[in-house]
Amino acid sequence: MRVVSNEMTSTETPGFEIDPGALRHLADAQMNVELDTGDMILNLGPQHPATHGTLRLVVRLDGERVVAADPVIGYMHRGYEKLSEFRTYPQITTLINRIDWLSSFANEVPFVHAAETLMGIEAPPRAEWIRTILTELSRIATIYLFLGEMGLQVGALTPAFWGFRDREHVLNLIEGATGGRFHPNFNRIGGLKDDLPWGWIADCRDAMKRILDGCDDFEDVLVGNEIFEARTRGIGIIPGELGALYGVSGANLRASGVDWDLRRDGKPYLAYPELDFKVWTHSDGDSFARYWVRLQETRESARMVLQLLDGLPSGPIMAKVPRIIKVPEGEAWVETENPLGQMGYYVVSKGATGPFRVKIRSASFSNVSILPWLLQGVYVPDVITILGSLYFILGDIDR
Amino acid sequence: MTTLALDIGWGTTTAIKTLIVLMIIPAGALILGYTFLLKMMSHMQSRLGPMDPGGFHGWFQLVGDGIKFLQKEDIMPAEADRRVFAMAPAVVVISTFLIFLVIPAGPRLVVRDLDVGVFYALAVSSLSVVGVLMAGWASANKFALLGALRAAAQLIAYELPLLLAVVGVVIQAGTMNLQGIISAQQNGSIFGFGGLGNPYILTQFVGFFLFLIAAQAELTQTPFDMPVAESELVAGYMVEYTGFRFLFFFIGEFGTAFAFAALAATLYLGGWSIPGVHGGIADWLGPIVLMVKLMAVAFLMFWARFTYPRLREDQLQAIAWKYLIPIGLLNIVVTAIIKVAV
């Protein structure tokens, strides 16, 4: 736009028709040449309140409009894939707890499944059901924070605190069952460390009721709010096919109308095949749709937990496993639907006590890869809305 | 006009008045900050807020914060325009200071009873945008610059609805003098019933809401807080300020909120007056009555602030030019017609 020189605009151009829109464009260009309105490069992050950690966005601005945006990742790279090669299988769950630190338990599940697949053992049904309950609880804990924080991204203070408040119920449950609020490290290869404590099931029912009430609060204060709609509707639209090409997954993709959920469509895992649940989609693909889909998913998760509590089977929680875990030679790929999207582990074993190679496929890494495309031509406030609505965890990007 | 019974010189009177107003600004900022920012917001968000400092519900918290700010290092960016950077917070506070000069707190409790009181108050209130622009420009920071430019665009756009909203009151009262407006409300009557006076919120409710919305934008409070939008611009034009200078901005922000609430209470709720109460007692009751009305208005302002999300800059401009200004003009026309007809 700015390369047009003065001569070009002033010369007469008879002979061919000029599109009036193009003329206006030229006038703009000329004015920009005269005023020398250069682009401004703005560093959003790595220390910025809206980036949930250390994501850095190099944004080129024309006024408040984004010309180009370039995410710079890796400020939190901790080398978990490489570290895994030097740890035994039971030790690795401690590491992968910290990938997506908000839903640690859900991170453990695919890895433990991969190891179990290679060893040819299967956790007893009760263990699988409790795993499902805890996975869904960590999903609620993760998304609940999003539901509140999305309000904060668009400027509403109060919902953020509600999100933190109600997440506390879920964290207390996780703590009650596993002993750890954020990093439970509760999975063992072949089952779980402990059974559920006394009274936990009743507490859990109570908490789910509160979660469902809290979702109604969010619906009242944000989804029904005109300003929230004005800020999110039509902002950051991801077309379904393009999103799939970029590897976007989870609620971000479902909000673009792609009806794909690994809990239902993937290889059956945990207790999901026996559950009755609905996969929510939205056809718009904008920030509002992403918020809405996540809100419905939280409700659905709470209902799933209630279902799971009703049908919880009895029995042991640990299969027979050798004292020293050696995984036979082989390769396994296990993917699950995590709160942030598709998460998978490709585990290669050479028969030792630790894996030979682990490839971690985390959801946020792919979700964020669409940012340069998504952020073109939006305003600065929308950058924050889009970042918020994509909902990534830095640990999940950088690993 | 005699303000004090004692016969003291002009210089002494002016000094006393100045001191009082200078004390009102931080006091008002403290009261609003404590009541709404610390307590009301906390309770809306189901938490208690500070409880320990000072013993009773953490009333000392903000004073303590102020003392803390005084001890902080005064950091100035290397690239900053030093003189402008240092002056900017003062300009903001001076604009707040000047508003208080015309707001009456009783029949005789007013620093300067100007004939163009409302006009003057609105004019000096827009001075603060100069301070904001200075701060943003002199900080040599991109976030600060973006914030300052947003503030300038926003304050210019919302000056107009604010003025148009007030014009309705001025037409109805027939004067721009704030004391005149108050006495018109105190001595007015609703369909011949004078027990309540005639607070203009009843007739000028459209103007009242316009005034509140525009004041919200002038104060850069949510939903119009783009200049300081902490999730986007970190702290906007204030981003480079620390210690004492930041304290100035903080006091300026809440002091101005206090002033605007007082102005709204004066224009629409009858200010210090209670219908039927005249004479010497009004001088004593006045400040209390004004305070109660002011807090009611401030409650509305802060309620919105803690509830709503933030608009985008272009949406804010659209609201000002497409809705508020036409509604304001319409309000003036209707008020004028009724005034002439009745």
Q: What can you see in these coordinates?
A:
- The complex is a heterodimer of chains A (399) and B (342).
- Chain A is mainly alpha-helical and 399 residues long.
- Chain A is built from 17 helices and eight strands.
- Chain A folds into two domains: 1-36, no CATH class; 88-368, Cytochrome-c3 Hydrogenase, chain B (Orthogonal Bundle).
- Chain A has helices at residues 6-10, 20-35, 80-84, 89-96, 104-119, 125-153, 158-178, 200-223, 226-232, 240-246, 251-254, 262-265, 287-310, 363-368, 371-374, 380-390, 394-398, and strands at 40-44, 56-62, 65-72, 187-188, 191-192, 330-338, 341-349, 357-361.
- In chain A, the strands form three sheets. Chain A has a three-stranded antiparallel sheet with strand order 1-2-3. In chain A, strands 6-7-8 form a three-stranded antiparallel sheet.
- In chain A, β6 and β7 form a beta hairpin.
- Chain B has one domain (74-341).
- Chain B has helices at 10-44, 61-71, 82-100, 117-125, 128-138, 142-173, 178-186, 205-218, 243-268, 280-307, 313-341.
- Chain B is mainly alpha-helical and 342 residues long.
- The model of chain B has no long low-confidence stretch (mean pLDDT 84).
- In chain B, α2 (61-71) packs antiparallel against α9 (243-268), α6 (142-173) runs antiparallel to α8 (205-218) and α9 (243-268) crosses α10.
- Chain B is globular, with a radius of gyration of 20 Å.
- The chains are: A mainly alpha (399), B mainly alpha (342).
- Chain A binds chain B through residues 40, 42, 48-50, 64, 151-158, 161-162, 165, 221-222, 225, 227-228, 230-231, 379-384, 388, and chain B through 41, 44-47, 142-143, 146, 222-223, 225-226, 229-234, 306-315.
